[in-house]
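Handout, section 4.2: multi-component inputs.
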Amino acid sequence: MARAPKKKGKTGEAASYVTRNQAIKKLQVTLGDFRRLCILKGVYPRDPKKKAKGKDKTYYATKDILFLLHEPVLSKLRDIRAHKRKIIKAKSKKDFVLVEYLDKRKPFYLLDRLVKERFPTFTDAVRDMDDALSMATLFSNLPSTNLIQSKRTLNCRRLCLEFFNYVALSHSLRKVFLSIKGCYFQAEVQGQSVTWLVPYNFVQEVPPDIDYRVMMTFLEFYETQLHFINFRLYNTLGLKYPPQVDLQKSDANLGINAFLLEQISSEDPEATPAAPDAAKTVTAQKKASNGEKKQQQAKIKSLQEKMQDILENENESKSQEDVGEDINADLEDEEAEEEEQEQGTETLLFKKLKFFLSREVPRALLELMIKSFGGAVGWEGPGSPFPESDESITHQVVDRDTQRHMFLSREYVQPQWVADSCNAGLLLPVEEYGPGVCPPPHLSPFVDDEEEGYLPERRRFILSLQEKSKNHAGAFDDMPQDPAEGDEADAKMKDEDEEEEDEEEDEEVDAAEAQYQSELAKESGKEEAISAPKSTKTKKTKAEIEEERARMMMSKKDRRLYDKIMFAKERKRQRVQRLENKK
Amino acid sequence: MESDSDEDGPVMKNPVGNIPMEWYKDEKHIGYDLSGKKILRKTKKDALQRHLDRADDPEPWRLVYDEVNDEELRLTDAEVKLLRRLRNGKYEPGIDPYEDYPVPEDDPELKIFGPSGPEPKSRFVPSKHEAKKIVRYVRMIRAGKLKRDPDPQDPDKLYNFDVWEREDDVVHRGAVPIPAPKMKLPGHAESYNPSKEYLLSPEEQEEMLKQDPSDRPLNFIPQAYTSLKKVPLYPSLVQERFERCLDLYLCPRTVKKRMNVDPQSLLPKLPKPADLRPYPSVLTVVYEGHKDKINSLSHHPDGQYFASASNDGFVMVWEVSTGRCWKKWNLKQPVSYISWNPNVDFPIIAVAVGSEVILIDPRFGPQDNLQSAAIQELLLKGREFAASKGSKEKNELVKFEDVASAEKEQGLLLRVKHAKPVTQVTWHHKGDYFVTLSPQANTKAVLIHQLSKMQSQNPFTKSKSDTQKVLFHPSKPFLFLATKKHVKVYNLQKQMLSKNLLGGFKWLSSFDIHPGGDNVVCSAFDRKISWFDMDLSAKPYKTMRYNNTGLRTVAFHKRLPLFAAGGEDGVAYVFHGMVYNDLMDNPLIVPLKRLHAHKNDGMDGILDILFHPTQPWLFTCGIDHTIRLFTDK
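Output:
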């Protein structure tokens, strides 16, 4: 039997991609709902090689659209639309009883499934956490408008603080960068580096020409994602989630200090949903985390005993919050010790230091830095664990030119010292960061020096300090470096030598030629005729001539690629040159 | 019963009753008395009188005008008090408005005023209306339409579990997800206190602001602050985050492989020029003598001499080794092309001058008399043959004319007169035939002439007006013809097109055939040289590009694996072009050297190049009136 002829647009690229309008028709939703759905489900346009419907269209993968078609959120969105219409109708009929009835029954959707769908493993979720965190930190600083509800803002603030608290507790902060946009933090969570930006403590401007519906939809998903990530992170520390908040401290804007951490009690099976089930996803990391968990549980037990001791010994009148704080401190101490054992002192740079923050420095940011590097923090204002007059304070962070009373027992530093020390992994000399002094340049810790191609003066200085401290730490470690490297260098040298020889030879020949030509020219009395071609012949090195020859023989494709690479190199070189010149 | 009666009150002087007094407005009277007589209105006081009265009166506010009786009354103290009390809404003193109402107990008379009759039945029977409502609600509840008010939803409580520990079959069934690229991490320039070199100078800043925001390398202007507390609000943070959101859901995503190629690996490995010696590289001799630009060069078959043709009307023969002009002929017109017969027995020079081709016998001294004799014999043979045939055709293609005797002394042999200017003349390798090109002559553009018969033939019937160059195959009966875009190969025996070489040229300038006959190299004004291996394909085996200028001419060496091209910038490019005898190996082409030979005037530099037949020497001629010889080192 003859096969039916293939129909156009049924196979291949044409069938595997659809335009946005086709997708909307297929899903029978409005553009707004489609956008919402795409944002929540993480569906984005694709770039097919063959654009069947023209280049000006946006294409989605057909598979994605079919996947959306069966999405429960889609039907919920339809329900919400229908429900809105019902309310409008009831209002217009002045049936306020019905309006009230309907108001209480607004359809809603849950996003937990979508989180699981988009991030099948916890690591995936952490890897994609950057945007979520930056968005949440931004929104926690936004004023509430009719589009940005204060409820959401508060929730964002809570989620951020919870995460920061985790970072501080687990000492996972790695890099800090004070930029003009805000403060960048980079932490290592679950083996993934998570980077986020915390704006400085201003009320942000809310530009009017932004579609906040889009941002709110993103935020909706991000909030859920952060919630689940925090849940899991707290569980790995053996803590209950969500942590209780001390309202009094929260009102005093004490940030991460307001959390009352509570351990998961072993009798309550429901509170430990993260039961170890390593057989399912057997990865080394997981096993490690399981091991951690056991340790944590042991720790928790000891903590519980302690807690009971406290409860027994202390009067009943002692408030709950104090206990929480004690636990907090205990946890930190133990964590710190453990970390120290595991990773050496490097990550706990501020281990034995005690900081006091003046009121003009951004407290929340510095607190996060200091706590996650193991230091103790006090501040000017309510809720500080120790007053300014405490003699054991080693550093006072100030951002004022003059001080009322200077304690001789402590160092006075600017906030940049804390950030620079965190990045350098060592305590930098404090003289350059004193009050009223313009501190040395603050460099981004995220720059790959090799890729940048330019080493600022300050970076060189810090590298030398690091080298010194390393040498100091292990005097026997400075063996001759990689022997292969040496060989390579030797080989290079040899090559260069050869080339030089060649060049010399060539130069000799060229010189001879030039001389001959000039002589000829003299003979003929026509200097001009010779000098003209000579002037066009710019002094080219042997390598350049060689390259020109080879370039001539390249295929078009190769040549274009080569030119592109060389162009990029040249641009980078120029950039570096410009920086060098400005120094 | 007491209030309605007027009779009990003060006696009415004007008993008109309770009527609007405006009815009497226009009358002189105001009513009638009891006897029926008109009561006349009192004469009205004028305003002055009224004012005087009021001024005289100690208490004028007590006066009230009674409209009905048409008289003025004076309020007494008691009346004033009463009025004041009324105005303040007070009771008469002594009256308690809130006095308890004394409820009389079991007063049978009072029962009269209570509800009369027995209670209606409806008060004791359940309401039908309500019963209906209840039934409706029950039905709605049963149908699930009516539900209890739900608890307010708190996502924290709903989400109180670890989503990654849950066992549910949530699977991503969409297309393979492409993770979004992370945002670029900030560089040194974004620091609140960057090092000085990262700050922009005012010019750089201006330049950056001129660019479109999407083209700028940074989306902010680097700033330096002396301390952290001086850092102000960054205004476009929300905007940037919004743009990131848009990127995440609006940007098409594809996986792009980042090529991490070492650029050196892309460069082809070429043999060193030193290994491919000999090749011309050094300027050795400059031949001077022409007064105008030199159009063409050609060498004697044994390579001892070469000839040049110039716009000044001279044809000169030079001795290669000494640079001496050995002989010259003044033809008085610009000479466009010159070609030396490759047959050693008949060393005739053919030159194209205007619309003529002139054949010249160079006569190399007494020892060459033999050759001159041979040439004369050949011509005689041709004349005889032509005479025997007679001039049958009236419209001959060309005219073979004898030269004047004075010219004969100089060595000129014959003029071949064409209808239109001749641009090129070239010999067959056996030396009997030569072909001329005069593009303006349309269908007669390409003509083949035979010396031994003094005869011409036109191989083409169609117009060949865009022909650039024409050459004989070095050994076979083929004619190569270059148009602006192609090189066409005609089989002269079969009289048909045998090959069409396509190089994608816009304007082909020149070509040459490898002495082996299977390879052709073409130069084009569109800055490229193409090597065709006719055994492989009709398309170029290799194309070499120049970024500088167009190329005017190209030539192969007769013996050595060399070829060269001359550019409009006065630079000659020398290549190694090795053709292997076995068919397995493709030709090896290596660029060797750039020779800066001649000046250029922006339009032209080198006009012709020529290889020495045996030595690795290259002659170039150009617009600067000189010929240069480049030799091996």
